[in-house]
Amino acid sequence: LNKSDVGLVSTNSPLVIGAILPLSGDFGALGEEVNKGALIAINEAKAEFPDITFISEDDQFSAKSMVAAAQKLISTDGISAAFTMAVQEAKPIAPVFNKAKIPLLVSWDSNEFIKTGGDSLYSIGFSTEGAGEKMAEYAYAKLGIKKVALIYHIDEWANLITGAFRAKFKALGGVVVLDEQTIVGTKDYRTLIARAKVAGADAIYFPMVPSANSIFASQARELKFTGVFLNGDGFIQSEIDAAGLAAEGIYFTNVYGERLSVLAEKYKQKYGVDSGDIIFASFGYDAVNTLIAAYRIARQSDISITKALKRVDIEGIGARIMMNGMRYSERQEKMYKVVNGVPVLAE
Prior knowledge:
- The protein is α/β, with parallel strands linked by helices.
- Helices cover about 45% and strands about 20% of the residues.
């Protein structure tokens, strides 16, 4: 195998997997779950690959830390491949991985950037744009919403999902009566909520970064907004719990896993407690197993892991992962509604 063609990978070298995750800060709890899921997969793989190595770095959800982690893993640790949680983490480090010709896999989400971000960038996540379009279609066709207010964070994910919702909702014939962004960290949304009421909105679509969703929902209930509440996958269970009764009846698109109970049992056996959010543990578990599958194919076919990733077809914990010759195996989120404090399928 030509080492210059594949970075630090060869068919005879052990597999070294790197992870670039937010292990501290606002997303630290989620990043830790991803990391714990990855470790379960690593331990299982040692029976087949006893020399497998796993190195995780804390990116603090900071672009500077992400780049530093990528450079360390590549230059110092000699990784064969790496994964990260979100496209927002992959964006600043994609050029580093493309230059090194080492594959970088995103496990949580996917969007149009994945398709143009370079030959080393892959995803097994959920489509951000697809989630926004799905909510727009559901709101217009199923819920009968014709006028909507958009209130969302100045954040890359929020911009993408809201932009897809906006375009689809308008194409269907809906009207956006308010379109407002607010900075992450805002604590008082009452003025914007009041403006949505005055504008005659049938619904408010408010995709925000945790933990703002629960604050927004509570304040909207206080102001007695009587329309429908719509959200995205930032409306995680901790947000639902924090919002309490204010969360009831909120519709949101969210990620899912088809075999989470399988991983939940493995998690309990390894760590002695239930996972705080098993879907995030599945992101780490599936990412590692995807890279291991690619490594296995690379060894068998004498090709790079980067090229082998396009051939991966495995049964993941979340869903079947089929790359089909592409650099992404996108999933579409499902529609949920909060009922008695618990998300239930709305479709």
